[in-house]
Amino acid sequence: MKSIFKLYFKLICLSCLLLLAGCDDDKQIGDKAAQQQPAPIVRHQDRFGRYDSIGNLGGKPVSIPGGVVFTWVHYIGDPGDFDTSKQAQKYQRPPITYQLPIEGFDFQYRLTDGAVKTRREQTDEDYLRDNKTLIPQGKPFPWGYTIVYNIVDPHQPLNFNKAFTDTQQAKKEVWHFEYIEQPQKVYGLTYFKANNGIDPSTNQPWQDNIAGPDILMSQNAQGEIKTYIQCDFIGDVQQCKHRFYLDNLPILIRIRYNRHYLKLWQQTEKNIAGILDSWVVTDKGALIKKQAGKV
Questions:
Q1: Who's near 216: CB < 8 A, 6+ residues apart?
Q2: DSSP assignment of 218-264, as one string?
Q3: Mean pLDDT across 232-253
Q4: For residues 214 and 161, what is the distance between their CA atoms, to the nearest angstrom?
Q5: Chain centroid, CA 186 distance in Å
Q6: Hey, where are the domains in the chain?
Q7: From residue 197, how far is each of 194, 207, 213 by CA, in Å?
Q8: What is the pLDDT of residues 7-39, one digit of tens each?
Q9: Could you give the dihedral angle defined by the CA atoms of residues 17, 20, 22 and 23, in that order, rounded to the nearest 10 degrees?
């Protein structure tokens, strides 16, 4: 009897030890799983409860106020807006984090003071008022439509040298005219006119504001064209299409505005660079600066 009792006792003790060991293993597995799970994404909101758009822009994490984005934010890999293919319909975007590369987004920028239009804020009311009052009267509209593009290809040159060369070649082959550099700069920009403003087919001043817009540019010390602007010179509303690269980030900015505000091109580039910088956050999403466009 004693031997049987000892055997039962040993079996009970062994079962307890195995149970304790199993509990310890479960605890370790649980601890490891907790460590492996990513920390929750911090997404900031504005005073209306709108969440910021987050992602990676130019290699830096950003948090863009929700009321600022004019349409929506595109991420690398997203199908096109009008892509109705089966592949596009099946597309599933990866989880949005501060490391997910942004392809591009847009916003409205006021050239006169560097403000960003934000829905349901004073700038939104200003924009609507200017639309109703200035445009019908033919007065210069102070807002510029801005698109920001992320440059993710490390081999893409961050200048417009090829764009200018290609433009010159295309005009020679298709329209049979050349761009001629003017002796005087305009607001510090090198200025090119299409055949000095004369249509070679009629020997009269250009009447087509599409074929031969004025070209204005700025180069750095290395001869890279970092600012490239094409402006209409005919018509009631003369527009400028202004493109530039940032010096410190692989980002391309396009902004379209009334030619009246061409004189503000340098301040415009500086202000937009500051706006984008204000949206940069830490890797975990903590704010660094006061965000432009957020009250």
A1: 186, 187, 189, 190, 191, 192, 227, 229, 230, 231, 262
A2: EE-TTS-EEEEEEE--SSSS-EEEEEEE-SSSSEEEEEEEEGGGGGG
A3: 91
A4: 16
A5: 28
A6: 53-278
A7: 5, 9, 9
A8: 454 545 545 544 444 555 555 555 554 455 566
A9: 180
pLDDT per residue as tens digits for the range 270-291: 999 999 999 999 999 999 999 9
Residues 6+ positions from 12 with CB-CB distance below 8 Å: none
- Token digits of residue 20: 């304790």
- Residue among 209, 165, 212, 215 at smallest CA distance from 191: 215
| Exposed/middle/buried for residue 146 (C-beta within 10 Å: 0-12, 13-18, 19+) | buried
The alpha helices in the chain, defined as continuous H runs, are: 2-36, 86-90, 122-133, 161-170, 265-278
Q: Which two tokens stand for residue 248?
A: 């410190």
Alpha-carbon Rg for the chain, nearest whole angstrom, is 29
Residue with tokens 């200018």: 164
Cα–Cα distance measured from residue 292 to residue 295, given in angstroms and rounded to the nearest whole number: 8
| Cα dihedral 70, 71, 72, 78 sign | negative
